[in-house]
Write a structure and sequence with these properties.
The structure holds two protein chains of two kinds. By secondary structure, chain A is mostly helical. Chain A contains six helices and no strands. The longest helix of chain A is centred in the first third of the chain and has 28 residues. Chain B is α+β, with helices and mostly antiparallel strands. Chain B contains 19 helices and 17 strands. In chain B, a hairpin with a 6-residue loop joins strand 12 and strand 13. In chain B, helix 14 packs antiparallel against helix 15, helix 16 runs antiparallel to helix 17 and helix 17 packs antiparallel against helix 18. The mean pLDDT of chain B is 86. Classes of the chains: A mainly alpha, B alpha+beta. The interface between A and B is large, with 37 and 40 residues.
Chain lengths: 155, 629
């Protein structure tokens, strides 16, 4: 690798994006804690503290949910770091994670217990993720399939 | 005088010789059973029928008694009736061995050596597969050519060709607008695109055409300029390639353009290979405009530059794979088989007097399974564009020949110049009139008595100013026109050659081999996924209800899409699309739920913005005032 090439400067919008994604990660952390507390892996004192501080939303299949939420938390955390370091995989994984969050949000909406704040935050992040400047910064701008010369109409 | 090229021809050649000199080479796909042949042998094996408005079918001339002359006889028919021929579908053929030999589900093209390669369904997306399933199901209720007909047609064709193999084209020469269009028409006994090559339709009889377009380059010499190949229902410039574009147009022995014929469909292609053909869904066309508006909004919102070419393509289309490999039989100059020629000039009686269909009429409302009419007519009896206006059909009606172009440009230049001189005079007159009015108005402006006249004068001046602006605008445009024409003339004189593909809007290109990397598993998945999806939907609807069913359906759909994406190595891109779609749905829900709060927030936002910008202006002007002079 050429050491003389200066690292790409991170645009402000990417920093904002990473911060917002970090907030989403914190929300995931809280959710994971709730699920993990429900599984009983914490001591009773810690579990009581978590469950009294945060609302008890865990339902059936709590172990599966806890594993899923923890995996998502780890992915969120890694993605936040990747976004700050402007890695292309972070953009891709970010879109997948946001898709899962949106599906979850819509599921909750249909079930009648929507988390509007979380939904709003996720939509905002998806919008920012797909801004041209952001996609360009992460190198995910689609290749231009338009011919290089102008195409004239018949004649 | 320049040396005539190898591809040129003397202008005094007869039409028959001209047609001979440029007759195309047709290269077929291995597995093809039908080749251009003669209509008289076909008609001899047909019966003539009429379908009455009440649905009753009547045989007018039985098989064995029909000839081209009898076909052309004028018959009185009530409006709404359809005349048609029956070839394989003739009731006399019902007992043919081919009918009994039919093996279920096995394409006859496969038996003839056709190898479809990667499954057609594996090459297209989910929506296309769903639409394909819809078309397959629609065949159950639509009129369709029965499966046995294809087998009988093949046997009959083999029998006819075995007795005396003949490959024939029907040619004519059309001289129009300085162009000389050599028009070759090919007649096929049967089109087995659906039953043989997984295409859209089957029908008895098929008329296709190829044209070579010449012009008189210099006195006594004709030069070929374009090759035009018919391809399904496409029309316009996309159908033609310039003679010197050798990347796109293959030519044998300097004068014979090569057309690669689609398996079963007999559509023509310029390059060998497999093509993804998009069949437009007519009843979804009305959704195209709003869908394009959404796409444009999306592009603007997210700066997605993916697409001028996409705008040229239909949005709602079902892709089919067309096999035009050229690895089968070939006909023409220096090929295994040569052409026999029939001239259509003067037009024989059967050509203009028989308006009916050249094969079985199956009452398909979409039309694809009904046989076509002759070269002159469409299925509905209306004049066929490709016959009556071959230049317009190929998008050449607005194109002068290279020999005519300088004179055309001169004529255009003279017109623009004349208008320019006229505009100079008009502008000077208007300006003078305007100044005169202005001077008069200024003289009486202060006199109360003349106020009504002053106001009328002002109105007149406004109208004059508007006229003057229009004339001046036209004058500027004319100046640009003149410069462009002069540049064009200079370029032509310098021998600058135009881009040979500038007229092409959608370039049909063979599928690239790297796009076809699929495993057997992927093909099995693509063949079964739609069926499995429908079974899954039924299972969910039976086992669950209400919101759970909705969630389960959505989850299943996403899983199916992601599995499909995984096979296509497209997970990231498809996951992004799914996420964006979910974001749009969520946004709509949020807007509906919080419309009042969002409206208030928007008003507050606008208020704050206005207040801050006004304060900034105030602050800037205060600072400027405080600054010592």
């Amino acid at each position: 690798m050429n050491k003389n090439v200066p690292p790409a400067r991170r645009p402000a919008i990417v920093t904002v994006l990473a911060v917002l994604f970090g907030i989403e990660t914190l929300a995931m952390l809280m959710l994971s804690l709730i699920y993990l507390a429900e599984t009983g892996i914490f001591s009773q004192r810690v579990a009581d503290m978590v469950l009294s501080e945060l609302s008890d939303v865990a339902g059936p299949f709590v172990v599966i949910r806890a594993i899923g939420a923890t995996a998502l938390l780890i992915a969120c955390f890694a993605t936040t770091i990747g976004l700050l370091r402007m890695r292309r995989w972070a953009w891709n994984s970010g879109m997948v994670i946001l898709g899962i969050h949106l599906a979850e949000g819509l599921g909750e909406f249909v079930q009648g217990s929507p988390g509007f704040g979380f939904m709003f935050l996720t939509v905002l992040i998806v919008f920012l993720f797909n801004q041209y400047a952001v996609r360009k910064a992460f190198g995910v701008v689609k290749e231009n399939r338009v011919p290089t010369k102008p195409v004239k109409r018949a004649g | 005088m320049s040396q005539p090229s190898q591809s040129s021809a003397p202008a005094d050649l007869s039409d028959a010789d001209l047609l001979r000199r440029y007759e195309p080479v047709l290269r077929f796909t291995r597995g093809e059973a039908y080749f251009p042949s003669d209509i008289d042998r076909y008609v001899e094996h047909c019966s003539l029928w009429v379908s009455h408005v009440n649905g009753y079918d009547e045989c007018l001339i039985p098989r064995g008694q029909l000839t081209l002359d009898r076909l052309a006889e004028q018959r009185w028919l009530e409006p709404g009736t359809v005349e048609y021929l029956r070839f394989a579908a003739d009731p006399d053929n019902a007992a043919m061995p081919a009918r009994r030999k039919l093996t279920s589900g096995s394409s006859t093209a496969l038996k003839r050596g056709f190898n479809p390669g990667i499954s057609r369904l594996a090459r297209v997306g989910y929506l296309s597969r769903l639409a394909d399933a819809g078309i397959s199901l629609s065949m159950l209720v639509r009129g369709r050519v029965p499966a046995a007909t294809a087998a009988i047609a093949e046997q009959l064709t083999n029998d006819i060709q075995a007795s005396q193999p003949r490959y024939r084209y029907y040619g004519r020469v059309v001289r129009e607008g300085g162009w000389i269009c050599l028009n070759y028409w090919f007649f096929y006994f049967y089109d087995d695109w659906r039953s043989g090559f997984d295409g859209v339709n089957d029908h008895e009889a098929d008329w296709e055409n190829v044209s070579v377009v010449l012009y008189e380059a210099e006195a006594g010499r004709l030069e070929p300029a374009w090759a035009v190949f018919s391809c399904h229902d496409f029309t316009g410039g996309d159908l033609r390639r310039r003679w010197d574009d050798r990347e796109q147009l293959e030519i044998v022995a300097d004068t014979h353009p090569v057309a690669y014929v689609g398996g079963g469909s007999h559509a023509h292609y310029f390059r060998p290979g497999e093509y993804l053909i998009e069949s437009e869904v007519a009843w979804l066309k009305r959704l195209e405009r709003p869908a394009r508006i959404v796409r444009r909004a999306w592009r603007k919102l997210f700066g997605d530059e993916d697409a001028v070419i996409e705008d040229n393509r239909p949005l709602f289309a079902i892709p089919f794979v067309e096999y035009a490999r050229g690895d089968g039989l070939s006909i023409g100059a220096q090929q295994q088989h040569t052409w026999e020629q029939s001239l259509l000039d003067p037009a024989p009686a059967w050509l203009h007097d028989f308006h009916g269909m050249w094969g079985m009429f199956v009452r398909d409302p979409v039309g694809g399974e009904n046989a076509p009419a002759g070269p002159m007519y469409n299925r509905d009896g209306q004049p066929r564009f490709a016959w009556h206006s071959p230049l317009e059909y190929a998008g050449l009606d607005a194109v002068p020949t290279p020999a005519q172009t300088p004179a055309m440009l001169d004529a255009r230049r003279a017109t623009v110049l004349a208008r320019r001189q006229e505009l100079d005079r008009l502008i000077a007159d208007k300006l003078s009139e305007l100044q005169m009015l202005g001077a008069g108005n200024a003289a009486v402006a202060g006199l109360t008595f003349f106020q009504p006249d002053v106001q009328a004068g002002e109105r007149q001046m406004e109208a004059l100013q508007s006229d003057l602006r229009q004339l001046q605008r036209e004058q500027i445009d004319n100046g640009e026109w003149l410069r462009a024409i002069d540049d064009r003339v200079k370029a032509l004189q310098a021998g600058v050659v135009d881009d040979p593909r500038a007229h092409i809007r959608v370039m049909q290109s063979p599928l690239q081999p790297e796009a076809l990397r699929f495993g057997t598993l992927a093909q099995i998945w693509s063949a079964t996924s739609i069926g499995l999806l429908l079974i899954g939907v039924a299972a969910i609807l039976m086992l669950t209800a209400g919101k759970t069913a909705l969630g389960a359906l959505a989850l299943m759909l996403v899983i199916f899409l992601l599995v499909d994406s995984a096979f296509r190595r497209n997970v990231t891109s498809d996951a992004t699309k799914i996420s964006i779609t979910l974001a749009v749905i969520t946004s709509v829900l949020l807007i509906i739920t919080f419309w009042w709060q969002l409206s208030v927030a928007a008003i507050v936002g606008i208020g704050l913005y206005l207040a801050i910008s006004n304060l900034r202006v105030l602050w800037a002007s205060a600072r400027a005032t405080r600054k010592p002079k």
